[in-house]
Specification:
Layout: H1 5-23, H2 27-33, H3 38-46, H4 65-75, H5 80-90, H6 95-100, H7 103-115, E1 120-123, E2 139-143, E3 146-157, E4 164-170, E5 181-187, E6 193-195, E7 209-220, H8 232-268, E8 270-271, E9 274-275, H9 280-308, H10 314-339, H11 349-356, H12 367-382
Parallel strand pairs: 1-4
Antiparallel strand pairs: 2-3, 3-7, 4-5, 6-7, 8-9
Helix pairs in contact: 1-4, 4-8, 4-9, 8-9, 8-10, 9-10, 10-11, 10-12
This protein binds coenzyme a persulfide.
Residues 122, 124-125, 131-134, 178-179, 233-234, 237-238, 240-241, 314, 363-365, 369, 372-373 line the site of coenzyme a persulfide.
């Protein structure tokens, strides 16, 4: 749902200009230094990028899913590390509070997240539990007015920057199923919370992940999301439904950028006396990429509109994430191929993008988990 086309177009124009003039020229610097420069973060805050999907009542822009998807297409036009910094505040870091938080939790955290004063992270994955998220073993044991958390969370995006963590932990040790899991808001600086060393990743330098370790971490009982035990896994799954759609939209944007770079190179690079864009085998790669991007874009927008209508889009979000992230990998591969030897050296952005986009097929649910979600939902619906 687009609430007001003219307002959205203005926002998209502003963000598009910011991407072209400020982010694209700084891509190499971010990759070299493994950090987004402070002045750029300040500009992101001023543009409202940390609060795109946080409701207006809490100081965010309150974008609908369709509007957010259109913005993500534009943000995808540059290194995914920039998007990653604002991604958790708009997505998996804040959505648990937005969807299931108490009025007090919303009022306390959302305005700060919207302003970018605080970064939020989502702590579900553990050393022993990734795709099988419901098997997590971090515990949260109630003692009077607080819980004691123990366990380790792994590969947590933005953990080094985060001021608040949405943490899924088992409150009922006797219940090994998803129903024994609850979600907590744990602030950085809480005694017993520590961070591991920053992971050295294949790509997306400038975006950081690390372990988050809880050792008798004392969390006040009012930090239980929604004040209810046993519903934390459902909260996490609902958060991921939205997150998967967002990632699918980002995949479309990044694919458009890679294709644009590949087309630019194909028009410039001459072999056998003419630009390589004139060769039909190169044209096939360009055309297949264009077609697949268009398909993914259409899927994302359709799923986003359905979500805005209040429909359950668990299946459609998984379809969009699966198709868009796999498509993005194919486009990256073709774009490197079109660049030839130049695509394998770091003078061209495509070498970096090729590594950066590999993550899209893995995080917020691997492609295989998306397949599993889609097929399971089909089977469930087909049963009488
Ligand atoms: N929305 C709301 N509730 C949901 C849901 C959704 N999309 N998906 C599942 N649930 C609920 C189920 O209804 C069930 O609730 P009840 O116990 O009340 O019936 C509960 O959650 C457990 O669901 P299910 O039985 O399907 O859980 P499984 O352990 O079998 O598997 C998968 C769930 C595999 C889909 C889940 O573990 C998953 O998504 N794994 C990937 C995790 C991931 O994406 N990690 C990335 C890290 S974050 S970057």
């Amino acid at each position: 749902m687009i609430r007001d086309r003219a307002t959205l177009d203005l926002l998209i124009q502003n963000i598009g200009r910011f991407v072209r003039e400020r982010l694209v020229p700084n891509e190499s610097l971010v990759a070299e230094t493994d950090a987004v420069p402070e002045p750029i973060i300040a500009e992101m805050k001023r543009l409202g990028l940390f609060g795109l999907s946080i409701p207006e009542a809490y100081g965010g822009l309150g974008l609908t899913m369709e509007e957010e998807a259109e913005v993500a297409f534009v943000l995808g036009g540059t290194s995914p590390a920039f998007r990653s910094l604002i991604g958790t505040n708009n997505g998996i870091g804040s959505q648990g509070i937005i969807l299931d938080g108490t009025a007090e939790q919303k009022a306390h955290y959302l305005p700060r997240l919207a302003r970018g004063e605080m970064v939020a992270a989502f702590a579900l994955t553990e050393p022993g539990s990734g795709s099988d998220a419901a098997s997590l073993s971090t515990t949260a044991v109630r003692h009077d007015d607080h819980y004691l958390l123990n366990g380790t969370k792994r590969y947590i995006t933005n953990a080094p920057e985060a001021g608040i963590f949405t943490v899924m932990a088992r409150t009922d040790p006797a219940d090994k199923s998803a129903r024994g899991i609850s979600a907590f808001l744990v602030e950085r600086g809480t005694p017993g919370l520590s961070l591991g060393k920053v992971d050295r990743k294949m790509g997306q330098r400038g975006a950081h992940t690390c372990d988050v370790i809880f050792e008798d971490c004392r969390v006040p009982a009012e930090q239980l999301i929604g004040g209810r035990e046993g519903v934390g896994f459902r909260t996490a799954m609902k958060v991921l439904d939205k997150g998967r759609l967002h990632i699918a939209a980002v995949c479309v944007g990044v694919s458009e950028r890679m294709l644009s770079d590949a087309l630019g190179y194909a028009l410039e690079r001459r072999q056998f006396g003419q630009p390589i864009a004139e060769f039909q085998l190169v044209q096939a790669m360009l055309a297949d990429s264009k077609t697949e991007i268009y398909a993914a874009r259409s899927m994302v927008l359709d799923a986003a509109r359905r979500r805005d209508e209040g429909l359950d889009v668990a299946t459609e979000a998984a379809c969009a994430k699966l198709f868009a992230s796999e498509m993005c990998g194919r486009v990256a591969d073709r774009a490197v191929q079109i660049h030839g030897g130049a695509g394998y050296v770091s003078d061209y952005a495509i070498e970096r993008f090729y590594r950066d986009v590999r993550l899209f097929r893995i995080y917020e649910g691997t492609s295989q988990i998306q397949q599993l979600v889609i097929a399971r939902n089909m089977i469930r619906q087909a049963k009488p």
